[in-house]
């Protein structure tokens, strides 16, 4: 019984980790990439 509960807990932790990874990518890494590829190039062209 304890092994089943441990396995379920590990599965829940993995799900949380994947959700956090997706959230980090969507809310931080992708906007940062857009900033570095688009907005900074626009500043360099105008400057």
TrEMBL record:
Database matches in Gene3D superfamilies: Arfaptin homology (AH) domain/BAR domain
Stored InterPro entries: AH/BAR_dom_sf, BAR_dom
Positions of the BAR domain: 2-45
A Pfam family of this chain: BAR
SUPFAM superfamilies in UniProt: BAR/IMD domain-like
GO cellular component: cytoplasm
Protein name, as recorded: Endophilin-A
Native organism: Portunus trituberculatus (Swimming crab)
Taxonomic classification: Eukaryota, Metazoa, Ecdysozoa, Arthropoda, Crustacea
Gene: EndoA_1
């Amino acid at each position: 019984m304890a092994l089943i509960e441990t396995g379920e807990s590990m599965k829940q932790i993995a799900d949380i980790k994947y959700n956090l990874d997706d959230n980090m990518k969507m809310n931080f890494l992708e906007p940062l990439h857009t900033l570095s590829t688009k907005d900074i190039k626009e500043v360099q062209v105008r400057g």
